[in-house]
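Still learning. Any example?
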Amino acid sequence: MTAHLSVPAIDSSTGLPTSLSPLAIQSLLLDGLKFKGLVITDALGMAGVAEPVPAGKREILALQAGNDILLFPSRPQLALDSLHAALSDGRLDSSRINGACLKVILAKQWSRQHSAPKDDSLPPLPELQKQLRGAMLTQLGPASPLVLNQSTALVIIGNRGDALERRLKLSIPHLQVVRHGKGTITATEQARMLAECLGAQQVLVAFLDESNRPARRFGLPSGAEALAKSLGDTHDLLRIALFTSPYALQYFEPRPNTSWLMAYHEDALTQISAAEAWCGEGHALGTLPVDVGPWHSGQGTPTSASRLPRAQSAPHLRLIARLDSLANAALHMEATPGLRIMVVAQDSIRYDGCHGHLGDAQETPVQRHHVYDLASITKVASTTLLTMMSEERGMLSLDQPLAELVPKSENVPLQVELGRRTIKDLLAHRSGLPAWIPFYLDLIAYHDTTGLGLADPENPMADWVSLCDERCMAPGWADSISTRIRSTEPKPPGRYRYSDLGYYLLQDILEDLWGKPIDQLADSMIYAPLGLTRMGYTPLDWSELTDIAPTELDTLFRKTHVRGTVHDPGAAMMNGIAGHAGLFSDAHDLALLMEVMRQGGTRHGVTLVQTGTAALFNQRAFPNEDNRRGIGWDKPGLHPDTGASGDAGSWSSFGHSGFTGTLAWSDPDGDWTVVFLSNRICPDPENRTLIDEDIRTKALCIVQEELGLPFRFEAERGNEDKPGSPH
């Protein structure tokens, strides 16, 4: 490439820049150095060549000097017309044109011969483009994703931003948009935008006028600094994105309550990636490439996606319509007061439906951030995962007898036959233990005769266990649960019988091995590493009561409408923290956890368990028995139209359901996860319509059909020996 330089040692006679000098190119480069490759000018619109030589003439001189390719003529049509005229009147020889063209053709032929073989390991182009933008986006200052259920205002400065707005509205449906064009932000305009943002809990500002020209302030209009300062003064945290050169940062001062997202470009794909990064649904892994003002090269806070991304709804209209119809039918038949369904396919949310109300007196419409009692999904989302981690670290063995693991108690020895059962027996529900024991009936009976079992929460005995707002329990009753279970003589092993009781023992084992309560273990080892802020035990510690769906109107035990505390009576007697129940979550966080396990235990650099451990626990525990269960996980039914998933999902699929009306199911082969949350037992636990009508299973079947996947037994016809099948 020839530069627009003045080098008198090479050419002191023509007065031309080296890019147009025959002495520099033809005499020195081509004849003297014997260069045989392509010769390309630097941009012909640059001042170094444009000021001394007018357009049209400089293109002729460039070819006469020996250049083969003319880069960025400022007036292409004038250049072509001038070259034609020079050829006609003999100022330019056609052999010069032919020689340049031949070199270009030979270079193209050479590049095809030496092109790199196709790399099949590279992702498809759209995925590669998304990865590159995630690696480019640079986070400066405080880094925290948007709270998606808070009121949010987006201020767009510039004439673009439609892609940014559309993508944000997928995650924040009620986004308020405030617009201003490219012009100066006057005091009047600033006041208008401040007033429109006043009620918003979160404010985003996007400067969308990409420019690399200092004379244009890199696309920032006058008044941009004042607007940023005013918005920062009136909001706890201001988020600003610059879709232009990083040198635009020189016009702003760092502030402790301002977060910056350098996006560098204003194209639609970059806008989408920036929106995803803001929402915690995409990466911002870049660092600043230059020193500018108080910022330094290499500065940045790389942030990875902590939430599931959302896909555009247009390709999934039939899926949306069918699931909406199913939900409306469930509400019409009063199967549940409200429900939430989330479908994740190919790593993106394809459907997120909120239907009905919470079942409270206010009939609060179901919203995305609402939390449900997961009931028995606790068995897999807490206890099973912690058992997987323990087995992986060699702290226990699946075939180890309980007598070696259950903490010793002099007062309550473990029943001998029960002590011979293994961890695997408990997790596969074939230990011979009964389904459950109504421990709370003993408490009620004791209360009815002496008045000492249930107490006023104002009782000075601070150690009493709170059952709900108005009723407490003496802590000794929790010990009585352990006594009953340890003393239970199980039936012979081998017969599948679903039981909660083994999970009380697993809780004791895990807490003894790790030296921490199970709720602290689950939070520190599972939910916190994945950034799950809407999942955990004792939900009133991290959620508002009004955001939690109520469950049963309990007229027997707690004598109140249960809300904000676990529905399961046994778990309630354990202070809401148990191995079999007690976990609460919104749909997103449960779906993300299931996606991690569907992908083998790792997501975005966070590893819960190794792939081999995930595969071990996901296989049928006892394939030679009439038992569909995996190790902790529920698995597809062995016969048509049976099990929690019905005929949907491949044999590798897994999940769990909950008594309150919940279901989480993932299929590694089909590449999907479905979460179904409802409170079907509100207010009546005897309401079995959701179960009798197979509403949850029908949701899975709709997903299976709309994703174009074969049903399990249809795929098995004529292929009974397929690996992984029950045959």
